[in-house]
Design goal:
There is one protein chain. The chain is mainly alpha-helical and 324 residues long. 64% of the residues lie in helices and 5% in strands. It has 15 helices and four strands. A two-stranded antiparallel sheet has the order 1-2. The protein has a two-stranded antiparallel ribbon with strand order 3-4. The protein binds geranylgeranyl diphosphate (GRG). The site of geranylgeranyl diphosphate has 15 residues, from α4, α8, α9 and α10. Geranylgeranyl diphosphate binds next to α4, α8, α9 and α10.
Length: 324
């Protein structure tokens, strides 16, 4: 046996050779501190949003109070975290990504305020607090949603742009994800599907638009803020798409398995509204399996980053295992 494939162990008067396969020793992968990462990004995003928004006292104070009420009600800040993590995977930094991270959170919060309205999902609780219209009335809640949507573009326009990703492209990216072919399209299909039997592929259409579009947009914007290479943007798109689909399936699972207290919003609403969900169509276990499969696809998309996407990996794993 050649010396390189054996190891010499000596003990007292004798030495003997142990056959040993050639094994490439890898340095142990450092464990990514996701709770620490989430705490830090949430604090940074909250601070940035506070600075981006008009103060609560700015006239008319009612609207600014209402915008801030929902924006700072304790959301998980997943979209901004994904945006910042994508920027970091592409060698960028939080400061450059922050206006875009803030913009996607404003759009997300607007969509939740409007989703909770009596004309939509008619919910009394969100993020563990009374919904916006319950506190400020329907008129102000509609306007607070509108104002947050508009605010998102004002914030995004403040980002640093690159010749490869000019402001025009950044604004288009956000407008398309939030527009009538994506976020709104998903909501329309969701509303129109209530009480009807819909197929798994129709449900996927809803999830792609209602949820995945904004999550995917968040990671793409993070990449753009770091002037990422086109191949990296494709990988982020692939990652965001699959994470987005898994996110909504988990959301549907939590709706039937968790309590309202745990979720901070009314649990069991999908069943009550006769909404088509994966658990309703394929059952809980199969839904979990599909979410795991989608998350594996998301992980696979990150190969191109060669270990620099630990935060994105951590977030994808968390989104699969989350309980709220
Ligand atoms: C224009 C009238 C009008 C309405 C638009 C587009 C829309 C209303 C609503 C869609 C919003 C929606 C409920 C999408 C589903 C996405 C989803 C699972 C949201 C919950 O996201 P989390 O869990 O929430 O990240 P937090 O509160 O943690 O931020």
């Amino acid at each position: 046996m050649p010396q390189s494939q054996s190891t010499l162990a000596s003990g007292g008067d004798f030495a003997y050779k142990l056959p040993m396969p050639v094994v490439k020793l890898k340095a142990p992968k450092p464990i990514f501190d996701l709770p620490g990462y989430l705490a830090a990004t949430t604090a940074a995003v909250n601070g940035a949003l506070d600075g981006f928004l008009p103060p609560a006292t700015a006239r008319p104070a009612t609207i600014h109070k209402a915008m801030r009420y929902s924006l700072f009600a304790g959301g998980k800040r997943m979209r901004p975290a994904l945006c910042l993590a994508a920027a970091s995977a592409c060698g960028g930094d939080d400061a450059a990504a922050m206006p875009l991270a803030g913009a996607v959170e404003c759009i997300h919060t607007y969509s939740l305020i409007h989703d909770d309205l009596p004309a939509m999902d008619n919910d009394d609780y969100r993020r563990g607090k009374l919904t916006n219209h319950k506190v400020f009335g329907e008129g102000i809640a509609i306007l607070a949603g509108d104002a947050l949507l508009t605010q998102a573009f004002e914030i995004a326009a403040q980002c640093r742009a690159f010749p490869r990703y000019p402001h025009r492209d950044i604004i288009l990216e956000i407008a398309r994800a939030a527009g009538s072919l994506q976020l709104i399209a998903g909501q329309v299909a969701d509303l129109e599907g209530e009480g009807k039997r819909i197929s798994a592929s129709q449900l996927k259409y809803i999830h792609e638009r209602k949820t995945s579009a904004l999550l995917c947009c968040s990671v793409r914007l993070g990449g753009m803020s770091a002037n990422c290479a086109p191949a990296q943007l494709r990988a982020l798109t692939d990652f965001g798409y699959h994470v987005g689909l898994a996110f909504q399936i988990i959301d549907d699972i939590l709706d039937v398995t968790q309590t309202s207290e745990q979720l901070g919003k009314t649990a069991g609403k999908d069943t009550a509204a006769q909404k088509a969900t994966y658990p309703a169509i394929v059952g809980l276990e199969k839904s979990r399996e599909i979410a795991r499969h989608l998350t594996r696809r998301a992980f696979a998309a990150l190969k191109i980053f060669k270990g620099r996407a630990a935060a994105l990996e951590g977030l994808a794993a968390y989104l699969l295992q989350r309980d709220k």
